[in-house]
Amino acid sequence: MFIISNAITLLLVMDPFGNIPAFLALLSNMDPGRRRRVILRELIIALAILIIFLLFGGYILKGMHISEPALSIAGGLILFLIALKMIFPETVRGQGIAGDEEPLIVPLAVPLIAGPSTIVMLTLLATRHPDRITETFLALLIAWLSTVLILLLSDLLRTLMGTRILKAIERLMGMILTTVAVQMLLSGIAEYLSSLGMI
User: Fold this and answer.
1) If you compute the radius of gyration of the chain from its CA atoms, what whole number of angstroms results?
2) Do residues 13 and 119 lie in contact, with contact meaning Cβ atoms separated by under 8 Å?
């Protein structure tokens, strides 16, 4: 249950359905074969970055003297803002990338996939459950593989489902993520008040 619940949460945070318009707009000038290769490469880079934060995020927090309640509250706020953008999406703007150019790391790998919310979520899971790193990694892998599948099929999904259905799915994911964000925020506040002996 730990793996499945966290895989779902990470998938919601990565928001592959919401990222379909951005990926297609940024790579609009590429042929489908080349576009798929670029998407796969960027997703592999994003996975590598996320694994680094999963393994070493706790040490980074200790070095910066950031407490777990502070991370939980910050994570809740970030997730809440991300969820609001999913529920009330802005129109993707941009002319795409020139045919002879390829994005590298920014903006596809970071921040669209390995964004602040995903990094905070993984770091929080690693610090709260240091004995379950393997399970957290499996949850990340499930969410990542799902994201890979959705984004590699982005052209087909947009054709079959249409933009309106994709937006509806994104908004539904945003509503679910809102509850996760509020729970994380409340947990962080409770932990902070408990550390002060107030509850």
Assistant:
1) 17
2) no
End-to-end CA distance of the chain: 29
Structure tokens at 183: 């729970």
pLDDT-derived band at 66 (thresholds 50, 70, 90) equals confident
Q: HEC states along the chain? A: CHHHHHHHHHHHHHCHHHHHHHHHHHCCCCCHHHHHHHHHHHHHHHHHHHHHHHHHHHHHHHHCCCCHHHHHHHHHHHHHHHHHHHHCCCCCCCCCCCCCCCCECECHHHHHHCCHHHHHHHHHHHHHCHHHHHHHHHHHHHHHHHHHHHHHCHHHHHHHHHHHHHHHHHHHHHHHHHHHHHHHHHHHHHHHHHHCCCC
Over range 9-29, report the average pLDDT: 90
99 vs 102, higher pLDDT: 102
Most confident among 23-27, 39-43, 99-103, 119-123 (mean pLDDT): 39-43
